[in-house]
Amino acid sequence: DTAVSQTPKYLVTQMGNDKSIKCEQNLGHDTMYWYKQDSKKFLKIMFSYNNKELIINETVPNRFSPKSPDKAHLNLHINSLELGDSAVYFCASSQPGLIQETQYFGPGTRLLVL
Amino acid sequence: DQQVKQNSPSLSVQEGRISILNCDYTNSMFDYFLWYKKYPAEGPTFLISISSIKDKNEDGRFTVFLNKSAKHLSLHIVPSQPGDSAVYFCAATRMNTGFQKLVFGTGTRLLVSP
Question: How far apart are CA A71 and CA A89, in angstroms?
């Protein structure tokens, strides 16, 4: 049973297109995250949702819009894709309030914009 | 502005020897530190963590040391095994803020040879 899953695993698309990445967690966690790992391997947080409410938004362009239909899902929609959006996008989840809160990551979605 | 730095991009160690991975941080507000391990084509997985009220935390072959005055932490793996070959990310955050915003280093690739 995969705890945090993402679809698709690979995504190749043209500049200017709109695409979505889906994330689901079956851990019963209240908080979900999106991270971007760029070509320099720098893993940086983009968004965080807690119980469907946005709590972290890290100066990400408006072309990126997260959507959380329920607390088990956090999808990422990207409009007007640019070359610089090429990266690996990781979804994660955690249960806040624990003494030792741990984030569980999905396998990543490799996005290549041509 | 990279608040968490891992200055060694790679490390090679022989099986059975000690692996020492280093991490430095600049933000004195960080009070909780984590190490994540990442295999190719997978998401990061939590390895071990330490709170700023401690200077050492041990879990089996893995020990994390924290030197707050130097803003430095290290991960020791003893004895190293070939299965430990992976990229190791150091991460830092502030606890008790209502959400966990992890700031990651760029990772150190560990290769353990038989």
Answer: 19
Strand partners, A44: A36
Check CB contact under 8 Å for A101 and B102. no
A45 vs B101: CB contact, 8 Å cut-off? yes
CATH of the domain at B31: 2.60.40.10
Residue contact B46–A103, C-beta within 8 A: yes
Domain assignment present for residue B113? The answer is no
Distance from CA of B18 to the nearest CA of A (A): 25
Q: Does A44 touch chain B (CB under 8 A)?
A: yes
Into which CATH architecture does domain A4-113 fall?
Sandwich (2.60)
pLDDT, tens digit (0-9, with 9 covering 90-100), for B57-83: 999 999 999 999 999 999 999 999 999
**Using a CB-CB distance cutoff of 8 angstroms, which residues of chain A are in contact with residue B101?**
45, 48, 56
Chain A residue whose CA is closest to B43: A107
Dump pLDDT digits (tens) for A15-72: 999 999 999 999 999 999 999 998 877 899 998 988 888 888 887 889 999 999 998 9
Evaluate whether residue B52 is within a structural domain.
Answer: yes
Which domain does B80 fall in, by range? 4-103
Average pLDDT rounded to a whole number, residues A85-94: 95
Q: According to the 3-state scheme, what is the secondary structure of B44-92?
A: CEEEEEEECCCCEEEECCEEEEEECCCCEEEEEECCCCHHHCEEEEEEE
